[in-house]
Amino acid sequence: MTAPxxxxxxxxxxxxxxxxxxxxxxxxxxxxxxxxxxLLWGLQVLFQLMxxxxxxxxxxxxxxxxxxxxxxxxxGAFASLLWGRINLVRGALRSLEGHRPSFxxxxxxxxxxxxxxxxxxxxLGTLLVGAALVITLGVGGxxxxxxxxxxxxAGAPVPDLVILLLVLLLVALIGLWLVxxxxxxxxxxxxxxxxxxxxxxxxxxxxxxxxxxxxHWPLLxxxxxxxxxxxxxxxxxCFAGFFVAWPVVVCISTxxxxxxxxxxxxxxxxxxxNPTA
Length: 277
Prior knowledge:
The protein has helices at 15-28, 30-51, 64-96, 103-106, 111-152, 160-187, 191-197, 202-213, 217-236, 242-264; strands at residues 55-56, 59-60. By secondary structure, the chain is mainly α. It has a domain at 15-119 and 189-264. The relative contact order is 0.15.
């Protein structure tokens, strides 16, 4: 039998514990979580209906009131999603601490955490969309122009090798963008938890997520895949299961977040999670 390697074993995320603790947290107050998920879904449907007012068949509405309603619907959908994410995390934290969160607690509005999550989400989206635009305009644009010139045969012919190299460069950059997007998707999955429990700016929130997730990135990728499968199964269960799967996934993710805080505690002091922040 091979002897174990000497030295301490590096602590790592326990996915089984996160799944178990998250499920137990949901089971402490399942009715509250499901009712709140239904409320969020109803708000999203309402705001989506408001946005459809600008379209009448294939023609856009000429009524200013329709455009105002559409703008209100767009802002409302985004704000209610941020509000819902923060309060589901709040309820998960309360439940993981052994309490039974009430529906009133989940309906609470806190400007601070919601705004922190808003700015961090917008920053992350800006980085991804900005990089995609740079790739599209910087490489895709010249490639389109050269390909059009080649088809029109206007002026000097464009060497096929140049077009081939641009195509390969575009494919490589798109591949790098997808890798970066997956990397950020994994290490920024705790934005709501960080925004609720720590008073950080947008850049600091992204950095905090990276510090927490990078040492456990492969395990967090696996956890994210499991959570996605749970969400898909909830949708497939006549869609009604989604209102269970959504809060369960939030509880699991929050349980993993608490684990990561505990794992880094011997190395550096971490702010205590405060679900009422």
